[in-house]
Specification:
The complex is a heterodimer of chains A (171) and B (184).
Chain A: H1 3-14, H2 20-32, H3 34-51, H4 60-67, H5 69-87, H6 93-111, H7 115-161
Helix pairs in contact in A: 1-3, 2-3, 6-7
Chain B: H1 3-11, H2 15-37, H3 40-57, H4 67-85, H5 98-101, H6 113-125, H7 131-142, H8 147-154, H9 158-183
Classes of the chains: A mainly alpha (171), B mainly alpha (184).
């Protein structure tokens, strides 16, 4: 038996929980290994000392404080109940939900280890988006001119063909 | 005491039922806190906090579970959490007090000096174990719980508890050896 195995089984050995074969192995190791014999002796002593610790008695002052716990909690509840009731109104639930969502998003930006990168990325994306909107707006201006010219052409064609009461000789 | 009925009465707001519950568990929880913290003053604070927690958690108690194991788990968790939270503010354990800790049967005048000294060293040595190791020693050896009860309180498998108790005892034995070396 190794010293490691002896240590693993030491408590069970001292508590008399080992089978005969293992107990025999422990006895043999105990006789041959002074280090393990010393450890077993020390553990025997600590076990004897530990088992002699009685329960400590709580003081009467502590017992009074323990008895008074329900009354104290009830008094605190009475004091704060109006505030809690106001805060727990169902009408405030959407506000709490919105605030929670905002805080989650904010915490990602502010407290994330890569927060600086996220903020930078946000700025880049924001300005990119702004640029795209400006470009769209400029394109829309050009498109407006094209639509105007097209509509003038269509009106002129109708006039030329005499459809819808137009004059085909009119130029 | 019909524990289930007492708990139901507590939930209905009965003061006498709460008093009965305190009477049944205060000594055990205070002992556990005192042995764990090592200071009477701190143990009183922790015991009060544990019972405050119990009062708040009682409506959530599942009547299908073992109340003692459930409550002791709550107490154990609170003690370890508080210990870890305030670790750096800790002072030393109270001096080993013969009057408080050695009044049990079997510790009369016939007890020899070496055994008394060992008891004092074990008391001081508890402080040198980690919170988890100290707790298993307290539950199993100082409070005399069975391995099954310790497993229920810690919420661990029986085999894990047995091996943890063994490791904690070995550590305590080594602490005892070191302390004796320091004394010489």
């Amino acid at each position: 038996m190794t010293c490691e195995r002896f240590e693993e089984l030491l408590s069970a050995y001292l508590e008399g929980e080992l089978a005969a074969a293992e107990r025999g192995g422990m006895d043999a190791h105990l006789a041959a290994c002074p280090g393990c014999a010393e450890l077993a002796g020390l553990m025997r002593e600590t076990l004897a000392a530990s088992s002699a610790f009685p329960e400590a008695e709580p003081s009467p002052a502590l017992m009074s404080r323990l008895y008074a716990i329900p009354e104290e909690r009830a008094a605190i509840k009475r004091l704060f109940r109006p505030v809690f009731d106001w805060l727990a109104r169902p009408a405030l639930q959407p506000v709490y939900a919105t605030l929670t969502g905002l805080f989650i998003v904010l915490s990602f930006v502010l407290f994330h280890p890569e927060g600086r990168g996220i903020r930078k990325q946000f700025d880049v994306q924001f300005h990119r988006g702004l640029g795209a909107v400006e470009k769209l707006y400029a394109d829309a201006g050009g498109l407006k001119g094209e639509v105007k010219a097209l509509s003038a052409n269509v009106v002129r064609s109708f006039d030329t063909l005499g459809l819808l009461g137009g004059d085909e000789n009119k130029k | 005491m019909d524990l289930e009925a007492t708990i139901r009465d507590c939930l209905d707001g009965s003061q006498s039922a709460w008093k009965a519950l305190v009477d049944a568990y205060a000594r055990r929880v205070f002992s556990m806190a005192y042995q764990f913290c090592g200071s009477r003053e701190e143990a009183e604070d922790r015991t009060q906090e544990v019972f405050l927690k119990l009062h708040g958690a009682l409506p959530k108690y599942d009547f299908g579970k073992n109340f003692t194991a459930w409550f002791l788990t709550l107490a154990k968790n609170h003690l370890i959490d508080e210990y870890r939270r305030t670790k750096w503010e800790k002072t030393q354990r109270d001096e080993f007090d013969e009057r408080v800790l050695s009044q049990a049967a079997g510790s009369g005048p016939e007890e020899n000096l070496v055994a008394k000294e060992t008891k004092a060293l074990v008391w001081e040595g508890l402080d040198r174990l980690s919170a988890d190791m100290r707790m298993v020693i307290i539950l199993r050896d100082l409070q005399g719980q069975s391995y099954e009860e310790v497993a229920a309180t810690l919420g661990l498998p029986l085999g894990t508890v047995k091996s943890r108790v063994n490791r904690a005892r070995i550590q305590l034995a080594q602490v005892l050896k070191e302390q004796r070396g320091d004394l010489q």
